[in-house]
């Protein structure tokens, strides 16, 4: 269910009306949980089970972590969470890629071997909700969080439909406390949310899809025939297209969450105003770059142990970030 469709407009309007009509906070959360699963099932009902599996595994792991003091047992529980979540992500994202690579290697050696093919479809949003649910397990393991939230609240956090498919990546420490008390209905916040949704739709539908994408696609298809000016125009068109498409989606997600009374973090902060690569890294897809910083780069040692270790940690972080983005040697 895409944000820029009449189906989503109707779906979101119904959810909004029923949500604010309910008086009990528990009923509102139940509605949002059901709506989130319906939203995801509209794409493929089968893959709802994957979200449920990740949710149940990590909720159980967190409960055991809070009840366990032994270091070895706690590490085993953490590795269970990492194995299940990253294993599912790796299977759906990389099985076909690895088989294709293996076939290409064999062909270069002139070996005639038919590699088996599997009709594996990558579940929408799995890269995003996997990192979200892992944030809860890892923060509990580190002692940054010390509360076992109810299963219903945790399931809502993992599947919250405004940002389920393409982020922003919300951390447990940011979202789960908001489930404790009823979200107040604020006219200012609701109006701001509606304005963000409209702005995001304009960025996505008009600027990215209708204005920049056709020019970018046409010029790249004719790359052998365009001159220097056309090449620059194609590059800037694509840069604008990818920004307005992704930032537009994030803006819609933030606005929709506002209209439901929830806060989710910003994901873009004027990235093309960056003054260098490091500055750009802190402005583009902020929820992802900060996740890699806090859960991978810093735990590896960051820049605390000399230049060689810093470069190693940077290379590992960026390589894994590339793998997260897509199963392709280009990534």
Describe, in plain words, how this protein is organized in 3D.
- There is one protein chain.
- The protein is mainly α and 331 residues long.
- It is built from 12 helices and no strands.
- The longest helix is centred in the first third of the chain and has 38 residues, at 71-108.
- The radius of gyration is 22 Å and the shape is globular.
- The protein starts with 5 loop residues before the first helix and ends in a 6-residue tail after the last helix.
- The mean pLDDT is 90.
Sum up the overall morphology in one term: globular
Number of separate strands = 0
Helical amount: 55-70%
Query: SSE order, as H and E?
Result: HHHHHHHHHHHH
Low-confidence stretches: none
Query: What would you report as the Rg, rounded to the nearest angstrom?
Result: 22 Å
Tell me the β content. Answer: under 5%
What is the arithmetic mean of pLDDT?
90
State the gist of this model.
The chain is built from 12 helices and no strands. With 331 residues, the protein is an all-alpha fold.
Sequence-ordered SSE layout with sheet pairings:
Layout: H1 6-21, H2 25-41, H3 48-67, H4 71-108, H5 126-142, H6 151-159, H7 172-175, H8 187-221, H9 228-259, H10 277-281, H11 286-300, H12 307-325
Helix pairs in contact: 1-2, 2-6, 3-4, 3-5, 3-6, 4-5, 8-9, 11-12
Question: Key terms for this structure?
Answer:
globular, mainly alpha, 12 helices, single chain, 331 residues
């Amino acid at each position: 269910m895409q944000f820029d469709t009449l189906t989503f407009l109707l779906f979101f309007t119904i959810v909004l009306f029923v949500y604010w009509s309910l008086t009990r906070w528990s009923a509102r959360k139940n509605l949002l949980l059901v709506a989130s699963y319906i939203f995801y099932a509209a794409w493929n009902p089968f893959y709802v089970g994957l979200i449920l599996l990740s949710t149940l595994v990590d909720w159980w792991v967190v409960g055991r972590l809070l009840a366990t003091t032994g270091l070895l047992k706690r590490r085993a529980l953490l590795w269970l969470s990492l194995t299940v979540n990253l294993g599912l992500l790796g299977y759906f994202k990389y099985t076909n890629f690895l088989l294709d690579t293996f076939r290409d290697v064999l062909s270069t050696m002139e070996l005639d071997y038919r590699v088996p093919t599997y009709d594996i479809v990558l579940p929408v949003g799995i890269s995003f909700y996997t990192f979200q649910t892992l944030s809860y397990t890892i923060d509990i393991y580190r002692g940054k969080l010390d509360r076992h939230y109810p299963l219903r609240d945790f399931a809502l956090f993992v599947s919250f439909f405004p940002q389920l498919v393409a982020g922003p990546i919300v951390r447990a420490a940011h979202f789960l406390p908001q489930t404790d008390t009823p979200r107040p209905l604020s006219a200012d916040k609701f109006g701001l949310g509606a304005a963000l949704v409209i702005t995001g739709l304009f960025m996505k539908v008009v600027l990215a899809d209708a204005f920049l994408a056709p020019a970018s696609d046409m010029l790249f298809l004719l790359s052998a025939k365009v001159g220097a000016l056309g090449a620059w125009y194609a590059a800037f068109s694509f840069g604008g297209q990818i920004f307005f498409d992704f930032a537009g989606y994030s803006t819609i997600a933030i606005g929709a969450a506002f209209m439901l009374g929830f806060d989710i973090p910003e994901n873009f902060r004027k990235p093309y105003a960056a003054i260098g690569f490091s500055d750009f890294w802190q402005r583009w897809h902020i929820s992802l770059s900060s996740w890699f910083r806090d859960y991978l780069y810093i735990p590896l040692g960051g820049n605390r142990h000399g230049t060689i270790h810093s470069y190693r940690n940077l290379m590992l972080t960026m390589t894994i970030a590339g793998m997260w983005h897509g199963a392709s040697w280009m990534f």
